[in-house]
Amino acid sequence: MRIYLPLATEDRVALESSAARLELAARRAAWGVHAEALRDRPGQDVEDLEYDALQDAVHIAYRIGAADQRALVIAADVPDAAVEVAGEDGGAFGVVTVAPTQARIASFHVTELDAAAADADDTDPALLWFDASEGGAALAFLDDAAEA
C-alpha cells in the first residue's frame, strides 16, 4: 500500500543519508487508500483517491508545523497488513502502522507555499516532487524556505 507520511523528526536522518527505507514505529500515523476507503467510493479513480490521501497528509503536516513553514510529505510503500484504518481521527484515508515496520521510500513532496499562505489560498497546496533518491535535496528546499 502506498502511504503518505508528514515528515517527523526521526525521518530526517534517513532523508539526509538518502536511505531507501524508513523505519516506522508502531502506531505511526499515515494516509493512504485502504480497502475501506475504496469500498466507500465505488467507481472513483484510484489515482484521484491517492491525490486526496496525499493532500490529507499535507494538511496534517501544515498543522504540526509553524505558520511560516512549508510542509514535506513522504510517499512510501508498506505491505497492506502493516497498517490498519485509523478511525475518525484519521479522516477518510487515515491509517496507522500496527507494529514497527519498514517502508520503501517512493518520493518526497514539498509544498510551494508555507502554511499561512496556503491557508489564505482556497486551492489544494501545490507540491514539488522529489525522487526517492533526493531526500537531502527535499530537506534542503524545506529548510531553505524556513531560513529565508
Overall number of strands: 8
How much helix, percentage-wise, in residues? 25-40%
Uncertain runs with pLDDT below 50, 5 residues or more?
Answer: none
Structural class: alpha+beta
Give me the strand/helix succession: EHEEHHEEEEHEH
Number of domains: 1
Instruction: Tell the overall outline.
Output: globular
Largest sheet: 8 strands, antiparallel
Whole-angstrom Rg? 15 Å
First-residue to last-residue Cα separation: 36 Å
Please explain how this structure is put together.
- The protein has 148 residues and is of the alpha+beta class.
- The chain has one domain (2-147).
- 33% of the residues lie in helices and 28% in strands.
- Strands 1, 2, 3, 4, 5, 6, 7 and 8 form an 8-stranded antiparallel sheet that branches.
- Strand 5 (83-85) and strand 6 (94-97) form a beta hairpin.
- The radius of gyration is 15 Å and the shape is globular.
- The termini are far apart.
Put the structure in a nutshell:
This protein is an alpha+beta fold and 148 residues long.
Give the arrangement of secondary structure elements.
Blueprint: E1 2-6, H1 12-16, E2 21-24, E3 29-32, H2 35-40, H3 46-64, E4 72-77, E5 83-85, E6 94-97, E7 101-111, H4 115-120, E8 127-131, H5 135-147
Can you give keywords for this protein?
single chain; 148 residues; alpha+beta; 8-stranded antiparallel beta sheet; 5 helices; 28% strand; globular; DUF6912
